[in-house]
Amino acid sequence: MKDAKPFPVLKNDNLLRAARGEVVDRVPVWVMRQAGRYLPEFQELRKQHDFFTVCRTPELACEVTMQPLRRFDLDASIIFSDILVIPQALGITVEMHAGVGPVLPQPIAVPEDLKRLTPDGALSRLSYVGDAITMMRHKLEGRVPLIGFTGAPWTLMGYMIEGGGSKTMSKAKAWLNDYPEDSKLFLNLLTDAIVDYLEMQVKAGAQMLQVFESSAEHLSKEQFLQWGAPYLKRIRDELVDRLTKKAIPVVPITLFAKGAGHSLKEQSELGYDVIGLDWTVDPIEARSVVGPNITLQGNLDPQDMYRDPDELRNLTTEMVHKFGKSRYIANLGHGITPQTPITSMEVLVEAVHKAL
Q1: Which domains does the chain have, with CATH numbers?
Q2: Pick the catalytic residue: 75, 137, 159, 272?
Q3: Which pTM value belongs to this model?
Q4: Are 175 and 116 in contact, with CB atoms under 8 Å apart?
Q5: Where do the Uroporphyrinogen decarboxylase (URO-D) domain residues begin and end (predicted)?
Q6: Is 125 an annotated catalytic residue?
């Protein structure tokens, strides 16, 4: 899959240095959903193209990935895609409905429905993501590193059972109790697909990876350690093992388990280089729990982006001071929201870079 042409030399590697615990020139900053609806140019492009058409068309995915970099002095790009491309590749229809979000009209309601999934050939149906990553590496001209990503098994399983997003994940949680063996089967099937997918992204040129366990917040600590953590560990271990055996350089990997602040110590033992924090976690407490050898990412409340510029600047500066310059990547504690003022992104990025 990889382009014959060598990739441009990386000029700003602060993100990768921070992930590896090396000295940085400045605290690196990027934002989850930085290519998204808060940008008027993204809205314009979306008027002409369906959401998943943008994901599946490398030229469009690259254009959207580049949009925030034209405006802001960010230290990373993240390929424009969606966590639900894996369910699509497994044969599940996913539609993006305006004002609603993702809808899966034929969810996996009962274990019998698992037979509808098509893991064979799933990776080949995701080749457009690899193509977009390779194209993007060239378009970046070495400006900043490119991040690839995936949804985590429990989070994907939740969408696939609920038929979309859910405030409670009650149907998916019922599976864990009612069908524990089938739940393990489901989570293992998703884990297999995710490892393949991440390996493909690295081969295509991704310089860092992030695993989004966005629905961890619906699990108790006990449930997270049973239904989240073992599969997250398997993703990291199997991916590193595969890359090592093929003599492909291992890239840093971030775990972002939103709402799993109760299990930071356990997360820190899964082998990930970076742990993402949501905005409910205190940076100083988090550092004391995970120790000095893991990088932390986060964790400004996305709602703070609606404050006036001086307030936002002060909150951002205070946050960076709490985390410090070593082993830290600045970000929000979840994705940027659609009405966020453009000026807030400018203030955030500048404040992070000037804080230390």
Answers
A1: 13-355 (3.20.20.210)
A2: 159
A3: 0.98
A4: no
A5: 28-37, 147-163
A6: no
